[in-house]
Amino acid sequence: MDWERRRIELQWHAAGFRQELRARWVLRKVNRLGRRARVLGDPRVDGTDVEIGDDFIIWQAHRQTLVSGGGRIRIGDRVFLNSGSVVLSVLEITIGDDVALANEVYVMDSNSHGVEGRPHVDAPVHIGSGTWVGARAMILPGVTIGKRVLVAAGSVVTKDVPDDVLVAGNPAKVIRTLSYPPRCRRAWHDAWCPCPKIEALEGDGSPPALDEPA
Ligand SMILES: CC(C)(COP(=O)(O)OP(=O)(O)OC[C@H]1O[C@@H](n2cnc3c(N)ncnc32)[C@H](O)[C@@H]1OP(=O)(O)O)[C@@H](O)C(=O)NCCC(=O)NCCS
Q1: Whose CA is closest to atom 18 on ligand 1?
Q2: Exposed end of the chain (fewer CB within 10 Å): N or C?
Q3: 99: closest CA among 76, 69, 130?
Q4: pLDDT tens-digit readout, 153-188
Q5: pLDDT digits (tens, 9 = 90+) for 29-55
Q6: Is residue 79 part of a domain?
Q7: How many domains does the chain divide into?
Q8: Using an 8 Å Cβ cutoff, are 136 and 157 in contact?
Q9: Nearest residue by C-alpha to atom 1 in ligand 1
């Protein structure tokens, strides 16, 4: 038995348990919360109409993480919100399954102020399943982002984005189409969602234990 590895695994499980306990307090205002939510630090989740699926993870470290407003906020299963991200809704923001918002991502469905005497714009925002939004990207009101999209760091997304593309820049433009291996359900991979292609190269060649097909 590798004791050092066992010790690290135990520490990992203990940290997970603490984060699940913390979630019960921090996410107490959420209208509907799935199973196994985990919270690190002290994010503010105080929107008045928020529903969140299973295996939600939200972190706060260096900056306030915020899920707030009087709009309808719907967050799917296995979603990760990293430190400093803001999801601010007056109307409707939906985030699909397996979505990750990196550090300091800003998602808003209202301009808050009008210009040139025009009324201010409130328009729903949708982020498709499997999409990864890079650090400090912004998603503006009215935007629908497709599935398994990779939004590069610092992008400002002003228009709808189709499925399976990389977008980057300000305003964000499609850089290229992304092609994924079969059964890949999200734009990034890690230990919890390994890339089938890499597993086949590095592992024993057996298919990964993904719990649902893309
Ligand atoms: C998008 C990203 C993952 C790179 O993906 P990639 O598939 O390796 O893309 P490439 O590096 O091949 O870049 C493709 C093109 O997009 C451009 N590009 C990449 N990222 C960009 C960005 N953030 N802003 C503007 N342009 C960008 C590249 O310059 C390149 O342009 P070119 O074809 O004219 O040379 C990376 O740039 C990025 O944004 N990383 C941030 C990840 C993050 O936020 N992590 C936080 C932890 S959750």
Answers
A1: 168
A2: N
A3: 130
A4: 999 999 999 999 999 999 999 999 999 888 888 998
A5: 999 999 999 999 999 999 999 999 999
A6: yes
A7: 1
A8: no
A9: 152
